[in-house]
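Before a colleague's protein record goes any further, I have to sign it off. What it holds is a sequence and that sequence's fold in token form. My question to you is simply how this chain folds and whether the tokens agree. Thanks in advance; the entry in question is below:
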Amino acid sequence: MQVNVSDEPTKSGVSLETVDEFANAVAALPNLTLRGLMAIPRPEHNFDAQRQPFALLRDKLDTLNRSGLALDTLSMGMTDDMSAAIAEGATIVRIGTAIFGTRDN
């Protein structure tokens, strides 16, 4: 489930405030399995600033798991902030630029 962790109008996803309700609604659907959360936060250049939204998402995943869900996926972090995402528990990082280089416009 994509979470708009930075509350950006240009990003998709449910808000942090509605994650619990949405996750429980999805978990109640018999033909879907909710595996985890993902987010693409606002770009930051400072490591500590990068960690903050990732910590919020990890905390939300932990809260959902304590409530009885069994989520195992935390997809967060891209090439420029993957170290902060990994430090906060990412299980999937999207590092296309690190692998393929920058895209031509």
Q: What stands out?
A: The radius of gyration is 14 Å. DSSP finds four helices and three strands in the chain.
